[in-house]
Design a protein that fits this description.
alpha+beta; 18 helices; 10% strand; Mito_struct-func_regulator; Prot_kinase_dom; ATP binding; Kinase-like_dom_sf; protein kinase activity
């Protein structure tokens, strides 16, 4: 008996020691890899400066991006967890170099799955019931696995419809917080040395948002609230929101209705299977309708409600029959304070109208503190607003390089960026990535203009005369129509 106790104590000690060492190991790996990528670019910048031929410069940059993309991919893939989210943020076709996008886009759904025997233990511990008693069928292989949880298709006993069961990976929260704190330290270094943008505030908001993702009770409430808002404020909701099974929700287990659809990243393949040319007119109309529906839902959530789904990356979007859009995963939501909701509504009008004076007022109202390094400050500030908070790329531009020497961020330094506004910025950047990925030039600001007007009108900040004047005395439309 004594020998068994000693054996158990040694195993327990080894597990505790391992859990203490893992964060240090991850931190070491992160700093070694990110330093290698960063110094590689700094050395390359010095080398490429000696090349005077522009075409040769571009070819050299492309090779450098491909070289760095492989290193970033390996870092995100090996570390997993939070770094899969980092890959989603930076691997967008409108923002990152094309070589990065090509390499990182494959990482979206590559989080390692938790083995079924552990999933079963989590389910039975959380639900207080035996899995075989509760489910008529439970698919052992997950539908997908993300950084925080994985989802399984199942059917409850006595039911006729399938459901989705979302189960949190055990022990993932502590490691994610370690990763975020490392990223915050790197952000502080970058904004001091290279990028005149308040990156640290953005990483603080990421920390706050991801911290909330570990509570599925909160996610269930958010899904219910957004579903109710969209379904009650439209004859037909612009997006499908899954229905939650409210009586079977815990902090680590969430059940909801199963929605059949095609992931938006596989839309082209699905069209080709059905004999529809992905580049033809039918496909173009379908893509336009998909983007407009999704964008309309976001315009209403952000500007009219202030409470919105803050993670529209491609893995969370399904295309259902009739080109209907389903929006999944409500772990990241944001409840925007009233002053920021209305300040952003004002900025939407400034962007839609190309009004530089209004953009300046909106920046001040939102607490976006800027420092000018150029002559035409008003014009550059408007360009900065369009680059950050609209989805339409300038004419002839396929990829934004926000930190290039010619970018507005270099000319108008963003010294303070309110943490609360980061979710809006990230959402717009993800929507722009979808727009570029679908091959559609779409301006959220132009589509949201009437919704922004309605929000400001309801708050007493716009009169009916103001609205008529700004529309060239056209008849007032209903928001979003």
């Amino acid at each position: 008996m004594g020998a068994m106790n000693i054996q158990f104590d040694i195993k327990d000690f080894q597990e505790k020691l391992s859990s203490c060492i893992r964060p240090w190991q991850r931190s070491f790996q992160f700093w070694v890899r990110v330093s290698d990528i960063y110094t590689g670019y700094k050395v390359f910048q010095l080398r490429v400066g000696f090349e005077k031929d522009v075409q040769k410069q571009e070819a050299l940059w492309e090779r450098q991006h491909e070289f760095a993309a492989e290193k970033i991919y390996n870092m995100c893939s090996d570390l997993g967890g939070f770094f899969l989210k980092v890959a989603q943020i930076i691997g967008k076709p409108d923002l990152a170099p094309a070589a990065w996008v090509r390499r990182l886009v494959t990482l979206c759904d590559q989080a390692p799955a938790t083995p079924y025997n552990i999933v079963r233990v989590v389910l039975e511990k959380e639900l207080g019931r035996n899995v075989d008693e509760l489910f008529e069928r439970f698919d052992v292989d997950p539908l997908g696995s993300a950084s925080i949880a994985q989802v399984h298709r199942a059917r409850l006993k006595g039911d006729k419809k399938d459901i989705v069961v979302k189960v949190q990976h055990p022990g993932v929260q502590e490691l994610m917080m370690t990763d975020i704190h490392n990223l915050q330290a790197f952000a502080l270094y970058l904004q001091k040395m290279d990028i005149k943008f308040d990156l640290y505030s953005l990483t603080k908001e990421i920390e706050k948002q991801i911290g909330c993702e570990f509570n599925f009770l909160r996610e269930a409430d958010a899904m219910d609230r957004i579903r109710r808002f969209l379904y009650e404020n439209n004859k037909k909701s612009p997006v499908i929101v899954p229905r939650v099974l409210r009586d079977i929700v815990t902090r680590r287990v969430l059940m909801m209705e199963y929605i059949d659809g095609t992931p938006i990243v596989k839309l082209g393949d699905e069209m080709a299977k059905r004999g529809i040319s992905p580049d033809g007119k039918v496909a173009a109309v379908a893509k336009q309708n998909i983007l407009k529906s999704l964008s309309l839902a976001y315009g209403q959530m952000i500007l009219r409600s202030g409470f919105f789904h803050a993670d529209p990356h491609p893995g969370n979007i399904l295309i259902c029959r009739g080109a209907e859009v389903a929006l999944l995963d409500y772990g990241q939501v944001k409840d925007l304070p009233e002053n920021l909701r209305l300040g952003y509504a004002n900025l939407v009008l400034a962007i839609a109208d190309g009004d530089a004076t209004r953009a300046k007022e909106s920046f001040k109202e939102l607490g976006l503190n800027t420092l000018s390094n150029c002559e035409d400050e008003q014009k550059e500030r408007l360009k900065l607003a369009q680059g950050m908070f609209d989805t339409k790329l300038p004419p002839g531009v396929k990829t934004l390089q926000p930190f290039s020497e010619e970018s507005s961020v270099k000319k108008i330094a963003v010294e303070a960026f309110p943490e609360e506004l980061f979710s809006v910025l990230r959402t717009l950047q993800l929507l722009r990535g979808l727009s570029v990925g679908l091959g559609i030039s779409h301006s959220c600001a132009e589509q949201w203009r009437p919704i922004a007007e309605e929000a400001l009108y309801d708050a007493g900040r716009l009169t009916a005369k103001d609205m008529k004047r700004s529309r060239g005395h056209k008849t007032r439309r209903k928001p979003g129509k």
